Amino acid sequence: MADRMAFLTTPRAERARRDAQERLGDWREVYRPGALLPVVGGQAARCMDCGLPFCHAACPLGNLVPEWNRLVAEDDWRAAAARLLATNNFPEFTGRLCPAPCESACVLAIDGAAVAIKNVELAIADRAWEQGWDRPQPPERRGPERRVAVVGSGPAGLAAAQQLTRAGHATTVYERADRPGGLLRYGIPPFRLEKHRLERRLDQLRAEGTAFRTGVRVGRDVTGEQLRAGYDAVVVAVGAAACRELAVPGRGMPGVHPAMEYLTWANRVDEGDCAASPLSAEGRQVVIVGGGDTAADCLGTALRQRAAAVTQLDINPRPPERRAAGQPWPVHPKVYRETTSHEESESGARVFAAATVGFEPGPDGRLAGVHFAEAEPGDRSARAGTERILPAQLALLALGFTGPEPDQPLFAQLGLAVGPDGALERDDGFGTGVDGVFVAGDAGRGQSLIVWAIAEGRATAAAVDRYLRGRTELPSPISASARALTL
After folding, report:
1. pLDDT tens per residue, range 328-343
2. Using DSSP, how many helices (H) and how many strands (E) does the chain show?
3. CA distance 85 to 64
């Protein structure tokens, strides 16, 4: 039996990572090869198996965290994998990429260190693949086959497609890029997610019967009218790829680029499409404008490309080390965090409360410097008399996303409406008001987390299955209006 008092006797431990400077010599994942969470059973045993598991409620997938923690603590890994896969199609992705709101809601986090839920999840997911427990689940065909088109192959589209295929529907995923995966493919650097893991999952979907059509611009190469004529239902899961802009002098000059453009080129090098990125940071002074995960991904990428210097400008003030009074448990608080990319930056050049006010051209008209000033508390405007300039030959804008790319022909062809927040309008059941057309993921929710995208894909699949058959046995973990625990 596991130690039921481990939450009192066992300190929290993280999964072992490779040395920070060693990591900069390659693009492999930051974790030490073959290293599971130290004494993983003991870490799982720290879970108190609360009568009211707030971790479960904080996860939009409704992951059965106490159950698989208990099973791992008792060394029943196969049963733990079954519990994990019952609610999460892609735990090897969330275990690497999710910021773990479940841990913020752990009861132990009220006054101490939360259970290492994310690391335990990753250990289960990786072991399930190694042991062959996470295998294809082709459907048992029952009744007339219905055809479904999924537009977009990010985590929401892939989750919806897998659920629908397993339910017995003939599902085809359309992707405008040359390879499926969306941001998992071209937005996430390989040091956070090696692409063979994505390929392995895609192979599973194909083995189950999901079809993929890549290099197809839906709305142009295939119209919305053709989709509706050729399929019984359509799921629009195009993501929220419209980058938030920075309207300051010099924005359009050479050397200033959106973060996603930069990261896509870096990932294409990793895929073998080209020998070097045309936006490589090698030998350049780089300024990253933004403070989120995308900015951190740019930082880690620039360091691996051997940038001469990298500075990150975050317009927000430095968060506190611990929860602020206005962000009590169990909400996911805004506290100071260092990513693995920040661990790798010896200079530690991260500037908080920094408002970017302009870009300075050099004699050749290309970027030579970035102007910034101290940001006023509250409205974050530039404080007079505090302006400085950083030398830079490459500036990357990592400011988040506003919603789906506007003016896509598909939207008009399908009769979809764009709301005031930039997202596609839909009802609480993911329907659009257009018969047989549904919206999943960031396209309808706006910029969000991978765990929300997977939950949306699963819930949308249940809505589509119900629409096609009049009933469904697929799980629906969230509604379209569901939101994270917040104040």
Report:
1. 999 999 999 999 999 9
2. 19, 15
3. 10
